[in-house]
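PROTEIN FOLDING TASK:
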Amino acid sequence: QVQLVESGGDLVQSGGSLRLSCAASGSIDNLWTMGWYRQVPGNERELVASVTFLGITNYAESVKGRFTISRDDDKNTAYLQMNSLKPEDTAVYYCNMEITNWRFGRQTYWGQGTQVTVSS
């Protein structure tokens, strides 16, 4: 089994910064694409940023130039550095990873979510 645990969510003022972390543990053979999503009540979950195992990144237009996704495969961890935060960035942020292990093959796993609140 694989577990993802996110951390770093907090209440921050507009213009501030936060760094989210997502650590994977359990049976892990290979890490593929890692991503961060966010969701506000009543809306669908949306992709914020992703990074492939080759290091190719993709960002939502609304966060380009402000957020940076990175990964440390030695630590099985994904990061999301969020700068110049805006009230509209307020959401629950979820980590997502594609992981291969011997028992389940290639699967997509989700973290439990971490709340980010940006006050104006």
The two ends are 41 Å apart (CA to CA).
